[in-house]
Write a structure and sequence with these properties.
- It contains nine helices and 15 strands.
- By secondary structure, the chain is of the alpha/beta class.
- Helix 7 links the parallel strand 14 and strand 15.
- Helix 5 crosses helix 6, helix 6 runs parallel beside helix 7 and helix 7 packs across helix 9.
- The protein binds ligand RRO.
- This is dihydroorotate oxidase (fumarate).
Length: about 325
């Protein structure tokens, strides 16, 4: 029997796959569909202190090799997702879920963390430090000082299992600096990577950008992101304390893509563009494709190959 079971800290999941925040997780109905799917767990859309309508449409477009989005953090507000999570954990005490939260500025993270800390939430909290799409708000984790300030403030008061969602990094010195910073905090996990911000796509028929916000700039996901996601997961696995788990996100279209992220060290794998385009059936298809690869290689569990990427001597 092949098992796709995995673990983050003390939390156990039957399947290594889950949604990426932002995809199929805005409403309770969508979250319920994820919970009823083969996915190992789910994460909510990033909640802000107050609900937000997000950017003007069109703000998402599927592309030949992925997607571009400038959603602008549309969400129903932290209270909505907290209410959902509290009701969910009563009904499903054995199925821990993730709640994603995002601030408009450093102070928001304190507000969000305090509210979750004071609640009965028993799952994992993902602090999104990498939204590329709010006009005038840089991606936090590209600024080491602000990241440090936010993490100091969060962990002064937050004692529940937590992780951070990171943007893609490109230079090896960036990995060194960010990993050294993250290693100082009691993180259960990091999630790498958010979409590649910012890209630009043009409709050749009209010479026009394919999305409206920000003059057409937006986060790129899907196959375009795969090599960057692999490099980020691998680079952080080589630098982070072993107790910090890694959620690998970016560029998954096939079971081989899932396998590759795990080979680079991912403990959990999230589906973004592929889930948006294919819907809930993506979980069963990718699980089957991953199991088939593992069977061919004689592997029965993820530990048989996790992090075991070969390099050329
Ligand atoms: O809502 C968004 O525009 C968005 C967010 Br918060 C994020 O973290 N990543 C992304 O690609 N889009």
């Amino acid at each position: 029997m092949t098992s796709l079971a995995t673990q983050i800290g003390d939390f156990h999941f039957k399947n290594v796959l889950m949604n990426a925040s932002g995809v199929h997780c805005m409403t309770a109905a969508e979250l319920d569909e994820l919970a009823a799917s083969p996915a190992g767990t789910l994460v909510t859309k990033s909640g802000t202190p107050n609900a937000r309508p997000g950017n003007p449409e069109p703000r998402y477009q599927a592309l030949t090799m992925g997607s571009i989005n400038s959603m602008g953090l549309p969400n129903k507000g932290l209270d909505y997702y907290l209410d959902y999570a509290l009701a969910f954990q009563v009904k499903h005490p054995q199925q821990p879920i993730f709640m994603s939260v995002a601030g408009m500025g450093p102070d928001d993270y304190v507000t969000l963390a305090q509210k979750i800390q004071d609640s009965d939430f028993t799952g994992l909290t993902e602090f999104n430090l990498s939204c590329p799409n709010v006009p005038g708000k840089p991606q936090i984790a590209y600024d080491l000082e602000t990241t440090e300030q936010i993490l100091d403030n969060i962990f002064r008061l937050f004692k529940k299992p937590a992780g951070v969602k990171l943007p893609p990094f490109f230079d090896l010195a960036q990995f060194d600096q960010m990993a050294a910073l993250l290693n100082r905090y009691p993180l259960q996990f990091i999630n790498s990577i958010n979409s590649l911000g910012n890209g630009l796509m043009i409709d050749p028929a009209t010479d026009t950008t394919v999305i409206r916000p920000k003059g057409g700039f937006g986060g790129i996901g899907g196959a375009y992101a795969k090599p960057i996601a692999l490099a980020n997961v691998r680079a952080f696995r080589q630098r982070l304390r072993a107790e910090i788990a890694i959620i690998g996100t970016g560029g998954v279209n096939t079971g081989r893509d899932v396998y590759d992220l795990i080979l680079c060290g991912a403990d959990m794998v999230q589906l973004g563009t592929v889930l948006q385009e294919e819907g809930i059936p993506a979980f069963a298809r990718l699980s089957q494709e991953l199991e088939a690869i593992m069977a061919t290689k004689g592997y029965t569990q993820l530990a048989d190959f996790k992090g075991q990427l070969h390099t050329i001597a």
